[in-house]
């Protein structure tokens, strides 16, 4: 599936902002590789809002910018704007693993490539965004036995969305790590628009990334058993 560069919500069409600008010499923001090489865990940072003017892009860029300093994993940005899935239209439940639509098979291939996930989610009506829930619901086995962490944002740090997401993760046989980065619209953004996270949030993100990486590695034997079955 290709990036929808003609989509008005796409990154290319957005104003030129980046709260923590990537280094001009650094790797592309959507693919930050750890420096260790070899079989490093592959972690997707899933950008879970697609609204025009979304704050989620600032947050996901901040996560990716922090991730670039790590040498113990490979990180890739998966922006749901680039995967415009319709409302779930598979005839069979995803846990049967009989995906019939091309868009589902492509999405399954994307998610299947990763060992762990960092979900960047807004809080909408005390839960995650609909577009993120839909994208999660589409597939099943591709999430199983993988680690996940949450970076949420909202008036109360998106905490209610984060807790909902952890419940969803349990049903998908994902291991949710303890640390949740919860960005407050009041104190971690200037004028509710420019991301300016408190120092402890950066520390929390570092801790959470470490936990996701560690658990992604620890669960690898389970994933091998599942693949062999
Ligand atoms: C449909 C909708 C529902 C929202 N509900 C909540 C909410 O329950 N709690 C909250 O803290 N913020 C809520 N907000 C505010 C969002 O957290 C805020 O607008 C945030 O910027 C949304 O993320 P986004 O800009 O990446 O889409 C809501 C926003 C929208 C659009």
What does this structure look like?
- The chain is of the alpha/beta class and 229 residues long.
- It contains six helices and eight strands; from the N terminus they run ββαβαβαβαβββαα.
- The chain has helices at residues 56-67, 102-112, 130-137, 159-171, 199-218, 220-228; strands spanning 31-32, 42-47, 74-79, 116-122, 146-154, 174-184, 189-190, 194-195.
- Strands 1-3-2-4-5-6 form a six-stranded mixed β-sheet, sandwiched between helices. Strands 7-8 form a two-stranded antiparallel ribbon.
- Helix 1 (56-67) links the parallel strand 2 and strand 3.
- The longest helix has 20 residues, at 199-218.
- It is globular and about 50 Å long.
- It starts with 30 loop residues before the first strand and ends with a helix.
- Mean pLDDT is 88; it is low at 1-27 and 33-37.
- The structure holds flavin mononucleotide (FMN).
Largest sheet: 6 strands, mixed
The end-to-end span amounts to: 28 Å
In DSSP terms, counting alpha (H) and pi (I) runs of 4 or more, how many helices? 6
Placed side by side, the strands forming the largest sheet appear as: 1-3-2-4-5-6
- Rounded to the nearest angstrom, the radius of gyration is 17 Å
Ligand catalogue? flavin mononucleotide
- Cα shape: globular
| Percent of sequence in beta strands | 15-25%
Q: Which segments are poorly predicted (pLDDT under 50) over 5 or more consecutive residues? A: 1-27, 33-37
How many strands in all? Answer: 8
Main structural class: alpha/beta
What is the quaternary state of this protein?
single chain
Reading the helices and strands in chain order gives EEHEHEHEHEEEHH
Helix content: 25-40%
Mean pLDDT score: 88
């Amino acid at each position: 599936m290709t990036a929808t560069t003609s989509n008005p919500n796409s990154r290319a069409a957005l104003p030129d902002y980046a709260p923590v600008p990537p280094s001009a010499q650094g790797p592309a923001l959507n693919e930050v590789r750890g420096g260790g090489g070899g079989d490093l865990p592959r972690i997707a940072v899933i950008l879970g809002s697609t609204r025009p003017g979304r704050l989620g892009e600032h947050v996901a860029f901040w996560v990716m910018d922090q991730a670039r300093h790590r040498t113990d994993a490979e990180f890739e940005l998966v922006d749901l704007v680039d995967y415009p899935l319709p409302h779930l239209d598979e005839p069979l439940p995803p846990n049967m693993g009989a995906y019939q639509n091309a868009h589902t098979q492509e999405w399954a291939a994307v998610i299947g490539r990763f060992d762990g996930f960092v979900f960047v989610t807004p809080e909408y009506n005390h839960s995650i965004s609909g577009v993120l829930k839909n994208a999660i619901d589409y597939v099943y086995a591709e999430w199983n036995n993988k680690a996940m962490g949450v970076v949420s944002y909202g008036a109360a740090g998106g905490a209610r969305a984060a807790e909902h997401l952890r419940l969803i993760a349990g049903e998908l046989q994902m291991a949710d790590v303890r640390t949740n980065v919860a960005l407050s619209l009041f104190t971690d953004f200037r004028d509710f628009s420019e991301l300016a996270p408190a120092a402890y949030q950066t520390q929390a993100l570092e801790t959470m990334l470490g936990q996701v990486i560690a658990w992604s590695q620890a669960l690898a034997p389970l994933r091998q058993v599942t693949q062999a079955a």
